[in-house]
Amino acid sequence: MHKRLSITKTILIIATLVTIFFAFSCSKSGTSSARGADTSRKLYLYNWTYYTPDIIIKKFEKEFKAKVIIDNYASNEDMFAKLRASSGGYDIVIPSADYTSIMIKLGMVQPLDHDKLPNLIYIEEKARKLAEYYDPGYTYSVPYFIGAAGIAVNTEKVKDYPRDWTIFGETALAGRMQLLDDMAEVLGIAQATLGYSVNTTDTQELQRTADFINTQWKPNIVKFDSEGMGKAFSQGEYWVSHSYPENIAEEVPEAFWDTIDFFIPETGGPLYIDSMVILDKAPNPDLAHEFINFFHRPEIYALFLDEFRHPSTLNSGVDKFRKVEPFYDMVNLENYELKVDLGEDLEKYNKVWQTIRYH
């Protein structure tokens, strides 16, 4: 009898211990879930392809206990069309100056809280002056990078060539060249070649520009390409590429860089300032401010420049943190003109672009 009671007691004690352990585990699990909620904050970023270094994203996620979800686009026009159809739930978008201006006017972005952006002190004066054209005082935007598209030449395949935009008129290179699938960039480099402003609204100048592209350049190119040009260039499909430097630097192994001549033509062209803006209906505006401020810490911005071998063009504190020589220089940028919002005259550009791109 006593033995049976002892066994019963033992079973009751074990059951009690199991219950206590289970309850404790649930409690602990609940705490982990609560902590998980802290780390489950999400930032939705919509950026150009090849423009968001993984190392910066990982550092941000670790420090701010957040997850960054990134979608990419190949042109301002693609980005704008998608956002007009639906904001897509993004927090930060990175348009160029002309589209930053358009988005501000349409109420698509929200004013920034500068108290949350102390690292604005590192933005250089030249960038502040350029911003006066589209967003005085950085009310709605913070510059991401100032630059220009250029030309990459495979020097193992091409030995003698002009180091300017007229290279696209070289019939000997027909079928081995590509132009960006970007209205502002293609019209802009042709306008600069013809001696026109990249912001001209003169109907005759625009028509001459379209005629020039259609007769002198278009017959020689494989395609208009803003997404796969880096890979196609690295694989030898293109010998001459109208491209952004990061597309080339990311796709071509560093061991082969001495076979590439990447340059910004002295003749000028469109200058871009890509800027970070927070969408009007951003789901996480506070975290978006944190990211913008984090990005412009000099030691973090240095990682961005080094990743893509960019020269320093706007962050004054970055140079002492750099570890990689730039892939190219921007000595010719004084000849480049900022592409601005053309307002109703943008339709003139759309019409001539149709005759180039789709005929």
Describe it.
The protein has 12 helices and 11 strands. By secondary structure, the chain is of the alpha/beta class. It has 2 domains: 42-146 and 273-328, Periplasmic binding protein-like II (D-Maltodextrin-Binding Protein, domain 2, 3-Layer(aba) Sandwich); 150-268 and 341-357, Periplasmic binding protein-like II (D-Maltodextrin-Binding Protein, domain 2, 3-Layer(aba) Sandwich). The strands form 2 sheets. Strands 1, 2, 3, 4, 10 and 11 form a 6-stranded mixed beta sheet that branches. Strands 7-6-8-5-9 form a 5-stranded mixed beta sheet. Helix 2 (54-64) links the parallel strand 1 (41-48) and strand 2. The radius of gyration is 26 Å and the shape is globular.
Strand count: 11
> CATH fold name of the largest domain, please?
D-Maltodextrin-Binding Protein, domain 2
The total of helices stands at 12
Measured as a percent range, the helix fraction is: 40-55%
Radius of gyration, taken over Cα atoms and rounded to an integer in Å? 26 Å
Summarize the structure.
The protein has 359 residues and is α/β, with parallel strands linked by helices. The protein contains twelve helices and eleven strands.
